[in-house]
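Re: the pair you flagged

First of the two:
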Amino acid sequence: MATGGSTNAVLHLLAVAKESGVKLTIDEFDRISRKTPLLADLKPWGNYTAPEMYEAGGMPVVARRLADAGLLHADETTVTGRTIGEEASAAREAPGQKVIRPLSSPLAKYGGLAILRGNLAPDGCVAKVAGHEQTVFRGRARVFDCEEDAFTAVKTGKITSGDFIVIRWEGPKGGPGMREMLQVTGALQGAGLGATVALMTDGRFSGASHGFMVGHVTPEAADGGPIAAIRNGDTVVLDVDKRRLDVQVSPPELKRRLKAVKKPRPRYATGVMAKYARLVSSASEGATTG
């Protein structure tokens, strides 16, 4: 949260916790985000690269900031065999570095990720909010059933300012495998639409993505999620402050649409990917198979 890192951290940590028998829910990430300042000014949304952060003192400096703020369990052992508090105390901060902000002047009071819910994500979704001062986006739904179609629409100039791109059937089951929507997010930035177009998906994003991006929408379309019922032209509202992602459609209409949804033919009918699609859990639970 303090470095504005990838949305994938949520997915991976939920999965690691599940495999390790540690109780962790998607809502914990939002609780932590609300009390953790954003300290690292990193690309793609910020000004500096990861090597520059390393030269500034790296993660030990971030840890020391969080320890000073009373946000670390300093006595917990980390991978070096020492405690995280000891690692934080041993941090060497480069004189005059500007990559990692002091606690007195964070980039934002809250962390780089937020967990949203709403009538489009009853089980939650992950929004990357680092680098954004605007907290509300209201746009016209432009709906695509795979990443490639959305990418083509951007490249051919069919996406315009005010659109809210929806890419569905790309979740753990629907993909199957939950692909990164890196092509589309990169194309939006290249087309100069990064600040005026939003994107939501039941797939996921690369850590290099930035802009109004919401991923891991659950339930996914292949699980009967409301994302499957959105239609072109619907008004979709992203509200970070209220932690909401909604389509402005009445509950009876949304229910009627969901009943009428025709699932696309599975991309794999046999083999390991077909088995994976049958077994994989929701992204809000780490997309695990065990």
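Second of the two:
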Amino acid sequence: MRRRSLLIAVPAGLATLAACGDEDSGSSEASDSPSPSASQPSAAPSPKIVDGPLPAITAGTKLGEKPTIAKGSGDPSKDLAVKTVIAGNGGTVAENDYVQANYLGQVWATAKVFDNSYDRKTPLVIQLAQGSIIDGWRYALAGKKVGSRVQMAVPPTWGYGTQGNSQAGIKGTDTLVFVVDVQGTFNAKSSAKGTEVAQDSVDLPKVGTNTDGKAPSIEVPDTDAPTKLVASYVLEGDGEKVGAEDSVLVQYKGVLWDGGKEFDATYTNKQLASFSLQQVVKGWAQGLTGKKVGSRVLVVIPPDLGYGDNPPQGSGIKKDSTLVFSVDILAKM
């Protein structure tokens, strides 16, 4: 049975998204906006995917531009209509991947825009998994490539169902139209891709620089553990800096300073971790704040910023342990 991440103080992650809002990352914009997340797992059968009909994109036709979409003409298909408007040449999106995308959603019959990420200037990062996102997205984006613009018309069966989404003004009979610009895809084989930074200190652990999706090595020196937090680049990415109230998508590996034994790792669990920096131990929150997306970071956490004298039961962490992490920051959420 997969262990719950030891880092999480309270339940977190994309599976806990409410139907009408992103996870609580400290952003009022996110919490007030109806993202395409699912409120509950769907029992709907797999849809038949058809080419149309789909309304025209009348402005903002380039990848990354906020699109303007015409009102739907006539009756929409009862099937899931999907069209690749711009074909990308990046990695292929698979079900259960985390996808990073900008999007706009509107109602077919009225052309009322109920949500878009372009104005927020923050792309959505969400897992294409049952119960995390509406089924229309799951089926429409699987197999698409990064760098693509995808348009879809989602009937209620594969959207918000007969209950609709009252906060967004979506009725249970509404077909929804989305334009999605796919910026990235991440899975258990993803790694940071930054530039190597010299690891010169003989008193600090050395972290491997492989970017093949496998767990990096962590070599802990035979010296006394530092008494203050250490947070330094192993690979420095070129993405945005992470803020103290942001949420992140990461790969990580944690070992004990004493003995170097691994106690937790996404690589071992074969599942990425996502959480708000307000929901983790202080050493993680302080160590990752200000670091760039796309980076691998060495974080050494003294007991007072970790678990102190109250480590999680069954974790293998003793009281007053110094913790050593390699953290790949894949995306900011």
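The chain has four helices and 18 strands.

-B.
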